[in-house]
Amino acid sequence: MAGTVLGVGAGVFIFALLWVSALLLCALLSRASGVARFSVVFVFLGALSITAALLLLPRASESPAPEVEMKIVDAFFIGRYVLLAFLIAVFLGGLFLVLTYHVLEPVYAKPLRSY
């Protein structure tokens, strides 16, 4: 099922966008005064006719086409493990150097005060 989000296709989102925009436009036009207030009927009928056209004239067939099974091949298999080995070696070398400098840090003697 290509092109689905949350198990539904693009048509559901088109219907949702159509009706949310139509209802928002109806809400805005209902606050208008004069003849513009009655255009709410035309907006509603337009959204209804677009919905009917989209439902009655589907774009795809009702039965989905059979999908061909694809075999996934990792062509960069050896290179990936070489890169992983290199990164592990650099990490261990850096860890060795950090720990060496941490353990072998010199401790300087504090001078004695003599009066």
Using DSSP, what is the number of strands? 0
Instruction: Please indicate the percent range of residues in DSSP E strands (runs of 2 or more).
Output: under 5%
Which structural category fits the helices and strands? mainly alpha
Task: Tell me the distance between the termini.
Answer: 89 Å
If helices are DSSP runs of H or I spanning 4 or more residues, what is the number of helices? 3
Rg computed from alpha carbons, rounded to a whole number of angstroms: 35 Å
Secondary-structure element order, as H and E?
A: HHH
For the sheet with most strands, the description reads: none
Weakly predicted, low-confidence segments: none
* Mean pLDDT across all amino acids: 85
Q: What is the share of helical residues?
A: 55-70%
The backbone outline, from C-alpha atoms, is elongated
Secondary-structure map with pairings?
Layout (H helix, E strand, L loop, with lengths): L9 H21 L8 H18 L20 H27 L12
Helix pairs in contact: 1-2
